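Quick one, tokens below:
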């Protein structure tokens, strides 16, 4: 009530009440924001997200099993290939992986160890599935590289290391199969530095190898781990050693004690002390020795890993760098997998959380589609097994049930328009026409090939209004996997016929008439991708060069991510 333009006592009281409530609400908001920020920072410190990479058959999946065993995630370690062990590796959950004894897709596994949440990604080693591995490397903060002590550095190892160097990803090297007759450890270290272009520093050292393998000396924690043939390593096998003159060495190692002393003296004299900062900058790789199949040297690796490996790092976008401790959520999709559970025909988009806190049931902004989506059943994974998660923090990898909204590289935010950079895309190198061998299952084949090509390891090109389908991949083995999965997951049978195609080029032009002219001229070589973008399928490199020369107004793009080229 107002009288003569002045406030009554009631009015003033109401004003003070309103102001007080406003101040209290603001204080409450900032207090909650501070608590949330503290909570996020605490969670970030606990996270370690890494991938295990290697050349095929170096022992990568076996090492993964042993790490899961130490983390209590599994009770019995499976084997990739074994006549005695009936349990298959947890990370090789697809039927074709169990049969062939190889990994054909990245598996995501989350477990806890010593108050740390470890997000482990087991990647395919085979070069035909390298795309999956390269994309996975964009979603991790560090890497464990497995080397076969018998074969040393192999071609695929070098390629994977190149990708790590591009991003300055910290690398820990585990030299596996020390219980076999392999190369001299010093020669292996020289080979690592020469071929992988990275400085090394051994943090454990093998005592002999092959049939005379005695164990491993931990240079980091000054302890001795004894090897016993045909027995798994246990805590009882670890002995603390005061120094190199400790009589325990002679007692347990006999004539090998003196050799160990000489080796350790040489290491300490030649190699610089381990520098954690250089490791985190990707300039120095700590090296461990052991035997994954015998559970030997794995615990030392894991203990040191959680001590030195980096927490979740900043990620670059087309707008700015996103820091993990920012209060607002952001993340990107780096992998899509169809039929993780074949019984439910589910399609999962794997998302790396980059900042803030992801909450179940909350709306988030899909930047490419410019619309808000809500996720009621986000999941964490133990390979095929999944469990619903209420919250996720930077570093976490979560699975989002997808009905076709996601593509690899998509970004989710709390409203900000930005796109994460650096997710690689590839131009196919092998092209084959898909032939339906069972017309009664046409519908299943259509659905199957649509979903499998969404995973990003193969690309679908459509000609003649959908009558002709051409699949492009970077490796021959991918066709076998597609054929197998179509048969077993969708009940559709097919065959592939090799095409004389050298290159796929996505077409754009500012002059629509020129683009139309080109497409009419090369009508038989024009196809459309899944998003209806025109693609030129060149017969040869010479023909492609001629077309680029004759049609300067038309732009030829060599990956399907041509729309992002300006942003990147």
């Amino acid at each position: 009530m107002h009288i003569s333009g002045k406030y009554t006592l009631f009015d003033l009281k109401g004003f003070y009440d309103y102001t007080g409530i406003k101040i209290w609400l603001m204080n409450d908001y900032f207090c909650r924001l501070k608590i949330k920020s503290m909570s996020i920072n605490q969670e970030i410190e606990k996270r370690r997200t890494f991938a295990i990479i290697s050349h095929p058959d170096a022992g990568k999946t076996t090492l993964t099993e042993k790490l899961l065993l130490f983390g209590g995630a599994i009770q019995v370690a499976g084997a990739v290939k074994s006549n005695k062990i009936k349990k298959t590796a947890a990370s090789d959950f697809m039927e074709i992986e169990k049969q062939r004894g190889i990994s054909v897709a990245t598996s995501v596994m989350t477990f806890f160890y010593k108050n740390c949440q470890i997000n482990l990604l087991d990647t395919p080693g085979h070069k035909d599935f390298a795309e999956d591995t390269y994309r996975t490397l964009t979603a991790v903060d560090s890497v464990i590289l497995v080397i076969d002590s018998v074969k040393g550095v192999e071609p695929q190892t070098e390629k994977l290391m190149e990708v790590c160097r591009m991003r300055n990803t910290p690398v820990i090297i585990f030299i596996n199969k020390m219980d076999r007759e392999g190369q001299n450890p010093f020669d292996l270290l020289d080979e690592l530095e020469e071929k992988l272009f990275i400085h090394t520093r051994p943090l454990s050292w093998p005592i002999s190898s092959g049939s005379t393998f005695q164990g491993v000396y931990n240079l980091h924690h000054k302890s001795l781990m004894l090897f016993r043939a045909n027995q798994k390593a246990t805590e009882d096998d670890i002995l603390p050693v005061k120094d190199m003159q400790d009589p325990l060495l002679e007692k347990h190692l006999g004539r090998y004690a003196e050799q160990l002393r000489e080796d350790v003296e040489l290491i300490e004299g030649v190699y610089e002390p381990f520098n954690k900062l250089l490791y985190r900058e990707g300039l120095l790789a700590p090296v461990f020795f052991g035997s994954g199949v015998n559970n030997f040297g794995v615990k030392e690796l894991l203990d040191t890993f959680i001590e030195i490996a980096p927490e979740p790092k900043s990620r670059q976008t087309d707008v700015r760098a996103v820091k993990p401790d920012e209060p607002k959520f952001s993340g990107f999709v780096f992998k899509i997998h169809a039929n993780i559970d074949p019984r439910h025909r589910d399609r999962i988009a794997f998302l790396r959380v980059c900042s803030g806190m992801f909450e179940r049931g909350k709306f988030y902004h899909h930047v490419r589609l410019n619309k808000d989506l809500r996720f009621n059943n986000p999941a964490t994974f133990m390979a095929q097994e999944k469990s619903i998660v209420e919250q996720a923090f930077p570093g976490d990898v979560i699975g989002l049930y997808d009905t076709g909204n996601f593509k690899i590289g998509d970004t989710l935010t709390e409203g900000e328009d930005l796109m994460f950079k650096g997710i690689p895309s590839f131009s196919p190198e092998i092209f084959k026409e898909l032939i339906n061998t069972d017309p009664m299952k046409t519908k299943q084949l259509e659905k199957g090939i649509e979903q499998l090509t969404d995973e990003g390891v193969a690309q679908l090109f459509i000609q003649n209004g959908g009558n002709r389908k051409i699949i492009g991949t970077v490796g021959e083995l991918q066709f076998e996997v597609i054929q197998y999965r179509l048969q077993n997951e969708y009940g559709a049978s097919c065959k592939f016929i090799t095409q004389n195609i050298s290159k796929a080029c996505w077409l754009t032009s500012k002059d629509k008439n020129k683009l139309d002219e080109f497409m009419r001229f090369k009508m038989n070589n024009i196809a459309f991708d899944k998003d209806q973008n025109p693609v030129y399928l060149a017969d040869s490199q010479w023909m492609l060069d001629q077309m680029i020369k004759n049609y300067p107004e038309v732009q030829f793009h060599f990956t399907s991510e041509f729309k992002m080229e300006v942003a990147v």
